[in-house]
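Hey, I'm writing a tutorial for new members on how sequence and structure tokens pair up, and I'd like a real worked example in the thread rather than a made-up one. If someone can provide the structure for the chain below, I'll link this post from the tutorial.
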Amino acid sequence: MPVTLAPANTPVRILKITAEEKVRKHLLELGITEGGGITLISSTANGVIVIVKEGRLCLDGALAKSILVG
């Protein structure tokens, strides 16, 4: 399921990132990697706020839908 549908405030594992290579590299620099952990804080039609490691990130909706978690 995409991170936009993950239960709020529950840590989940990133299974796959389906974005293009350039975007995947940028996400890697931000700490968002396949096999890593992520926690959804809030989700709106425009985007999401997530916790990755010790920081919070805001991601737009299209990018958030390319991050598949389980």
